[in-house]
Input
Amino acid sequence: MLRLPPVRPVLEDPCAPLRELLRGYLPAAEVQRAREAYEFAAGAHGEQTRRSGEPYIHHPVAVACILAELRLDIASVQAALLHDVIEDCGVSKEEIAERFGAEVAELVDGVSKLGQVRFETREEAQAENFRKMFLAMSRDIRVVLIKLADRLHNMRTMGVMSAEKRRRISRETLDIYAPIAQRLGIQAIRIELEELAFSHLYPKRWHALSDAIKAARGNRKEAVQKIEQIIAERLRQEAIVGEVSGREKHVYSIYRKMQAKGLPFSAIHDLHAFRIIVKDVDTCYRVLGIVHSLFRPLPGRFKDYIAIPKSNGYQSLHTVLLGPFGHPVEIQIRTEDMHRVAEAGVAAHWLYKSGAQNAHAEAQARAWLQRLLELQAQGGDSQEFLENIKLDLFPDEVYVFTPKGKILSLPRGATAVDFAYAVHTDVGNRAVAARINDMFAPLRTLLNNGDKVEIITAASARPQPGWLDVVVTAKARTSIRAHLKTIQQDEAEMLGRNLLDKALQGLGSSLADLGDGALRDMPKAFGKGSEGELLAAVGMGEIFPLVLAHKLLPVEDQGRLKQTARRLGQAVSQLLPGRVSSGAVREPLLIRGTEGLPVTLARCCRPIPGDPILGFITAGKGIVVHTHDCHNIREWRKRRDRWVDVQWDPKVQGEFPVTIRVVAESGRGVLARIATHIADADANIDRVDIEPQDGLYTGITFTILVHDRTHLARVERNLRTLPSISRVQRVKG
Output
């Protein structure tokens, strides 16, 4: 079994423990290369010390020792010894490349933080450092192995830090580093990171649980030994060679189980798990049958990770049995090769060069890294990238099948939308429905283990903003956001051009009058990179169209045009009442209800076609359309620079949400009768809220979908025909 004991530095020669480990698997020439890297790092760090007071060189040596325990190659060991010289000692990447080669220099640079870039917040700096590490990791996976070893030794020696810093680093370890170790299958490092982080983050809980486990250990020792003896004896009877061992579950895993199930420690009975290691896969399944004949298996608790490995390459049979003392017993059955991969994960590629399990673990890791590159290619800032990485580090998975029988692993809670994007980004962007186990289902449907999923697509379909509330994979979330941003940019740019043209009309001019090059110098003046970005900012309310219009017109032209426009407006107002604003003829913006992100209908008053409406420019949202009597706009009425003339398009189509409140006599079946009358008026119910009953009457609020005010009036008339209805009214605000 792979063990990662804390390194005890030897003051006379800190490199001695490392040299011992390296001699166990590397030739003498490569051990000497490690010595050269150590001497260079020791010289670079000089008299530098850690917060504990020990020479700083002890830290890189300890990191290199952890990698040597994993039996990584000499380049990784050299990079571990040098991993802080760029960041702390001012040594350049070029100097490392000249002394130790480009391969080592790339590894050291990948692990180093961004020292020369200034960030506004610690979170932004940390997110950018993580992005750099992940991208370097996608080029060479050894970068993250060095970083994990670095974090592990820092966690081992964190006692001298302040409590606040210990908590912050521990939270980061649980959120990022331990899940990465899990994702890469390096269980030895993952378990120790979790245990150390838990002990620093919640020291009281850690001590209380540790003491409780120690107290229970004596009572259950006999039970563990008896189960081991029963299984071992039965294997001997069947002439099967295998190693049976019982182990105590880790404190953090017990704590997570208590939290997930809401149980006290006294209700957790499976404190021990048993592992059976045999020589080949066939024997694994034979042993499974043997243990099932010894103890009764619990329904639904068997998992075959040999036939369907986890995404990190892990393979084993898991079963839970009812033990001889009436408590559940967890048993894992695997081969020796599977056990090595379970402990070392992707690091087994360097430790054991042969074996299908090693190749599978590495292939799965590289597939994950490829997904990281796809996330990066989608754009977005560092914190969004880090958020997507966290989403992609789910430990629990479901396994589903494509129509051709290919297996895809997705995080627990994944929907058909996640599946569509896992197949291909274009499939996700054009998805309209799903067929799950040969039955049609909505795209929001949650997937279960073993589901066969087929995605129905349409050329005219596109991602919906609501999908962001149901997807759990980083690829789906990033792809949806990228597509929506593109749509938003195009629509905002079109709306911005329209608004600017109307503002110019108010000054007696237009974009057509100014010519094609009118906006050429404006983006720079407003801090934008292009005319498209400038117009999109106008459409989204970041720049007021009137301000930009004044910038486009010379001062003398503005005065002359205003006078001309005012005279023209006085002449035309008699012919076109209500169509003149600010002294010029201005066509209102037509609202179709399907404009998308730059134009939205206010949720407070829920305007529908037929309502008198007003448009208000809101920064970051574009134009928000309200009814003219909406309570929320009273205080804004004086801000004429933000108002936009709008009216419904005569050809407006579609369904619009509106809220109505019905007061009815309390009684059996009243809700069903009201719903039937709404449906009879060709309206759909989107939401129902029932107020607590107070005496003889009940208030029920419906959000329904109607075409316009005429349709709403028909619904209300239909409801008033019910004898039990005392009041029907539309709700605004």
